[in-house]
Amino acid sequence: MKTIVESGNHYLAAVKANQPTLFQAIQQHFHPEDTFEQIDKGHGRIEKRRVSLSPACLNLPDWLEMNTIIRVESQRQTKNKREFSTRYYISDLKETAFQFYQRIRGYWGVENRVHYVRDMTQGEDKSRIRTTPLPQLLALARNLAINLYRDAGFSNMAQAQRKCQFGLEHLLSLFRMK
Known about the structure:
This protein is of the alpha+beta class. It contains 6 helices and 5 strands; from the N terminus they run H-E-H-E-E-E-E-H-H-H-H.
């Protein structure tokens, strides 16, 4: 974090249970002062998210200039199932709960747009290739494919992949070839 702060940048870091000292400290010292709540309906589910902020009154040398503790409580309800989760973040920024909501949702948008597509549509997690440099080269090829699909106007990556697998004309059009 020192390098980030000294370079004039900011951080928003997830805190998980695998960091037990920090995780317990922020839970114990969390006193919400600002809250934003959002309810989304669609795709057969209802999702509620509550983002609460607490000033960081902790003196932790590894976390320079920590100003804000953020708690995100999520509830997801489908026809047959209800799930709850609570996540914590820390940041050197001083913003509103709504602004942190936007930042965190923006991160998950990237996660969903890239990593989910690579894992589910392109089967990256199922790949048995482990010998260096092949995993890095395949990741590069997967990212190139995603970018070509998006550049060609596809919003559904699975559909784009199917069209390109079964039709040379679609594949050639991605590279603007005749």
